[in-house]
Every structure is written in C-alpha cells, then in structure tokens.
Fold this sequence. Notes:
The chain is an alpha+beta fold and 101 residues long. 34% of the residues lie in helices and 25% in strands. It contains 3 helices and 3 strands; from the N terminus they run βαββαα. It has helices at residues 23-41, 71-79, 90-95, and strands spanning 2-7, 49-57, 60-69. Strands 1-3-2 form a 3-stranded antiparallel sheet. The protein is globular.
Amino acid sequence: MIEVNIGSAPWDEDCARIGQENYTARTMNECAVFMRQIERYYPAPSDSSLCIEANRHDFGTYYEVVAKGDSDWAFAVEQDQFNKLKNWDRKAMEELGLIEI
C-alpha cells in the first residue's frame, strides 16, 4: 500500500491557510469537497481510498487529502493526468457556496 499526499484543494485555487479565522472548519470542508471531486474523475479501485490527514507544522496543524492504496491510481491522482484537479469543478463550487445551484 502506498500513501500519496494530494493537497487540500485544487492546485490553482485559493484555500484556507493556517492562522486564518475558522481555518480548521474551512479546510476540513474544502478537503471533503476536494475528495468528492477527485472521486468524480479518478474513482478509487476497491483496494484504495482517499482520506484527510492532519500534519503538524511549526505554524500549526494543516490538513490535506491523501490517496492510499494502489500505486498506479494514487500517482494518477497526484499527476492529474486528465487535468481535472486544477480548479474546482461546477459541483464542488456549488458545494462550497461559490455559485448558486
């Protein structure tokens, strides 16, 4: 089994930052929405999954999505071969309240 850190949000989007008001709640929500977006484009094989992990840092604890399991799948998510994880997709933007349904 392999573990690959993916991040807390699409790589070309602003996201919650350690030290911001309501950081933990905001980043946990962003991570959950990001996990659902990843699953839309890169469905996990039966022996693989996504989770949110906490990581300690000098400035506090930060959270990010981690792909666990099949290495081909985990690296495909990390490399975003289909370029679907650069920005929030429409469904994610709806979930985050960035656009109206």
